[in-house]
Amino acid sequence: TWVPSLLVTSYNGSSAARRRLREEICLSSQPPHVVLTSYRTLFLDADWFLTRPWSLLVQAETQNVISAGSADQIRTLVNLKAQRRVLLNSGAQKANPIDLWNTLYLLFPGVY
Hints:
By secondary structure, the chain is of the alpha/beta class. It is built from 6 helices and 4 strands.
């Protein structure tokens, strides 16, 4: 581990396993610094993710959500309570004005 003091939780598994993880995170005297999950899992448990404050939200492969995501999925990402946001795209951004607007909306939800 390159930062041994960094507490990282991988948030995945069955519904019951994720319920246990939520309980552990909420009851912990020292919650994790990083919670890793997939978009699919985030959308399955969106109610829980939306209730928690996040210092930093890093979203990878955002071009897939922007181009193929539903309005509900984009709304969920926008409504996450994050102090800071970072979007990571693996490919070139299309020159589509709607995709560009959605990218800016995910990055700066209070502005766009």
